[in-house]
Amino acid sequence: MPARPIVVIYANARARRSHVNRPLAEALAALPDVEVRDLHARYPDYDIDVVAEQRALSCADTVVLQFPTFWFSVPPLLKLWMDEVLERGWAHGPGGTALRGKSCLVVASTRGTEEDYSPEGVHRHPLASFLLPLEQMALECGMTWRPPIVIHDAYRLDESGVQRVIAEVMGALGHGDADGPANAANAASTAASLELA
């Protein structure tokens, strides 16, 4: 497979019931310059091929971390991926320059509303506060941290809402145009046969 400048690290243990993340991953996978690496499909036994993951990251200009939040954090397999793949001496620390200069974009969904993630809400903090470890990770690796795309109340979105999310993410990755959601719908339709988990 040829190198792609955008790599999406997609972690979703419940992908087959996914309302937003799976359609988004499928739409992104249909783009010619994007490689979606579905961690749960690749590593159902959690035995991560570190060399293969590092090779994919080395070829990318932009790394996207896409996931539903799990207890205010990333899903367990994504945390394991970070621990094993982003090795000291490769991604950070002395000699760890492999990711320096690349962009990092987080796309995270929640079941809670935006109001839930506010000082007055049940979770008392914006989701950005819970993403601070990822921002610090990116900075430690010499990456450019881009403002996260947060999908609140994801399971309540209707079809037009899902298409708006797809269009927003595609736009952030340089694939936006005047057609917006219509273009996103076409990409999602093209991706239907990819059968991401």
UniProtKB/TrEMBL annotation:
Residues making up the signal peptide according to the UniProt record: none
Boundaries of every Flavodoxin-like fold domain copy? 6-159
Provide the alphabetized UniProt keywords: Oxidoreductase
Listed PANTHER family: GLUTATHIONE-REGULATED POTASSIUM-EFFLUX SYSTEM ANCILLARY PROTEIN KEFF (PTHR47307:SF2), GLUTATHIONE-REGULATED POTASSIUM-EFFLUX SYSTEM ANCILLARY PROTEIN KEFG (PTHR47307)
What is the protein's given name? Answer: NAD(P)H-dependent oxidoreductase
